[in-house]
């Protein structure tokens, strides 16, 4: 099953309490090598975002994120895991799970 793993910053986090987080390059290499990580990359900051909405047939653009959020998206990965427990185990080893927030969302399956 495929999962979208959103990697988010937590601006309110006290970085002194993060501890000894794993190395991101090691996490990427391990999960690429096992065929778990299908795709992933960093994304530019929220100041570079453009929000697109269509209202009454008119395309409306807003610079920056439209939704107020505490956690800021820093990157993403697409994971191929056996189930949610497997995805949680993979995500829990990502460095940002230690100093940020990881959100997992399953993709719709063919049977959904």
Automatic annotation (TrEMBL):
YCII-related domain: from which residue to which, for each copy?
40-106
InterPro entries for this protein: Dimeric_a/b-barrel (IPR011008), YCII (IPR005545)
**Any idea what this protein is called?**
Transcription initiation protein
Similarity field: Belongs to the YciI family.
Show the Gene3D superfamilies listed in the entry: Dimeric alpha+beta barrel
Q: Name one Pfam family in it.
A: YCII
SUPFAM superfamilies from the UniProt entry: Dimeric alpha+beta barrel (SSF54909)
According to its UniProt entry, this protein's organism is Catenulispora pinistramenti
